[in-house]
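User: Predict structure, ligand zinc ion.
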Amino acid sequence: PQPIRLADYRPPEWLVDKVDLDFALHPTQARVTARLALRRNPKGTQGAPVILDGDGLTLVRLAIDGAPLAGSSFEAGPDRLTLAHPPADSFTLEIETLVDPTANTQLMGLYRSSGNYCTQCEPEGFRRITYFPDRPDVLAVYTTRIEAEREEAPILLSNGNLVESGPLPGTTRHYAVWQDPWPKPSYLFALVGGKLAKVADRFVTASGREVELGIYVEEGKAERAGYAMDALKRSMRWDETAFGREYDLDVFNIVAVSDFNMGAMENKGLNVFNDKYVLASPQVATDADYSGIEGVIAHEYFHNWTGNRITCRDWFQLCLKEGLTVFRDQEFSSDQRSRPVKRIADVRALKAAQFSEDSGPLAHPVRPQSYREINNFYTATVYEKGAEVVRMLKTLLGEAGFRAGMDLYFQRHDGQAATIEDFAAAFADATGRDLTQFSLWYEQSGTPVVTVKGSYDAEARTYRLDVSQAVPPTPGQPTKAPMVIPLVVGLVGPNGDDLPLTLGNTVVERGVLELTKAEQSFVFTGIDARPVPSLNRGFSAPVNVVSGLTADERVFLAAHDADPFNRFDALQGLALGLLKEGARAGAPVAPEALIGAARNILANTALDPAFKAQALALPGEGEIARELAADVDPDAIYAARKALKSALGNALAGDLAQTYGALVAAGPFTPDAASAGRRSLRNLALDYLAVTASAEGIARAAAQFEQADNMTDRLAALAVLVQHDVPERERALAAFYERFKADALVIDKWFILQAQIAASDTLERVKGLMAHPAFSLGNPNRVRSLVGAFAAGNPTQFNRPDGAGHAFVADVVLTLDPKNPQVASRLLSSFKTWRQLEPVRRASAEAALRRVADTPGLSADVSDIATRALG
Ligand code: HT7
Ligand code: ZN
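Assistant: Predicted complex:
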């Protein structure tokens, strides 16, 4: 297909003011009657035909203002309905279609999950239900009537408030009518029907509106929805206090389903979730699961304002809702938990997913200029870098300026489909600041490199920072303009205290230096002793900083920096230097400085255990590969990392054993951040203590595996055991399966751990597990847990030099593509860093990608990724 370009945007020719939907649910022949109140757009082209989108639709009947339409007056195919000569400038079009929810394996449109009916419409799924101008700038109010067999679907839900329900006399069927008073685009439509258990609660908004809350889950799982409900209520309150945003319907429902392409979906008043982000109990969910649930529940709820009340004009503006809403959910979790630890976790995730995307063939701007398949742009760049851009805006404008801009944005654009320009204008107008150059963050792809050189002049008592910035070339963007980069800095004096930051006579507010040029110098005055610069504090900008800090300076910052993020980063920087050296030259590492710094962190009783766990966890293999940038040998990286981990584990054995012993839980499991932090440090110690597979280390892990009273500790112990070729590995895997085999979400963890074993027989193991009764190619969670975890989380085996790992993943992509193109193309995206591999592995990755690209009949999703990855 031809690319769709932002520059070609035109307003819709026809608007829809009102939509009445009538669903007669049936497993294979669901009947959908849509009545659309169409109105010619005064801003459109004179005499334009009505063209409605469809996707694989079967048309049964058409009528205009109640009169059936003769075949000669329209043109209907599976993918489009055209009325070349509309009868008037406004009329009601009635469309009857038949859809087959059971055959819908793409999980877009109306489909079935575990026998229940549900829908997924973002971005272009509504057109798989009925013909419609399926674009986000057509906003309508919806009334939805659903009828179904009472036995098959006792629960019937849709957007908005329930206005009517009851039996259909003389039949075994019943019905419900839902009305959503808020105009919305079609992608926010949702319907659910099925046998579901309900957890009910209520919330009273700041202005006194009573809201009925419901979380619907598969029968028998209601007791696992408590944490999600608690997270929902906390999210609702937080949005009122942090952003002044109240909920706006009488009902807020969440439904958890087990077959879902992504994490969750923010449909108005009826969020639909992957059950992974709803269900939790201490026995089956880890601390990471709990924080994931909290974050995703918040994210979808926050979309009610940033996405739903103000939506996107077109899909190029996706970051308008996604980047902003990720920023909001990150802030929520920071307020609920530890802010520095949350920031560290977010930056680790950003670097792993987005920096790697930005440095490879799939790099694209936060707001792309063109796309072939919009489903492929729900990326780390749009989401996570999009959130970083909002964060930088806040850093530049300050707390009050940012809030004023947000308030103006809500006030101006409530009920509209907006653009990034609208968003930026609200901040510019609220603060008087020119954001023209800042907008480059939405246009230019690639991660800027900021190079900093510091020099001290003892006589003049000045410290000078010479700063340059450059954005590397990316696909379609060979040259770049300088960006506005808010670089938060500190100058740490010899006693560890921050020195005052004064440029000439001006105090640098909040430590924010604004970089705007390719090269700039900042001369700080009144500096009495040579400081150590602390750069990009709090990771204030998503850039790579080249600082030239010495190992001693990093050790100093790890011990003294007032900024917790940079304390963490100093230690990571030390480790990264050693790991790169080790991977490049295979040279023995000399980790004494790192060991000393790590020992100090471990012994520091003033530090939060969760922070210590983050600081002491070595950079991942992916980050080391990205730093090396070219000729990457994943086996060498793995070996260097293992060697450094062993050196640390051995040198700190006493301290780690003491930590492990001291952090025994005092009571039963609770998922709060402080308890989770203690578990994370204890489990990090467990891992280090077993790194050399010593009998003692393995026995400790085996004992924890058997005795754990919660999934966090049990899984952490299992993760240690599976990485070592010891008899305890298979024993523990078998015991785990036996214990949790009825629980698909737990068996996903079992798949993930096995898929990530760095051993030469893992590929065979993964192939074997694909035939396991618990595996299904039809369920996205299973595919991601087994094949996705292998491709994205096992660099040595996915990139085997014999090419078997690449070939296997390509085979799965091709098998999956006809069933579920979205999941297939995401899996193929695991090849996004293939160009940085050394020549042998690079050739095998290229061959696998070419084989995929050359396969006839590919979906647009897979074909787009294959072409761009090779491009
Ligand atoms: N807005 C949603 C994005 C989405 C999605 C969700 C479920 C299945 C398919 C999907 N395609 C796009 C999720 C979010 O960011 O909140
Ligand atoms: Zn979102």
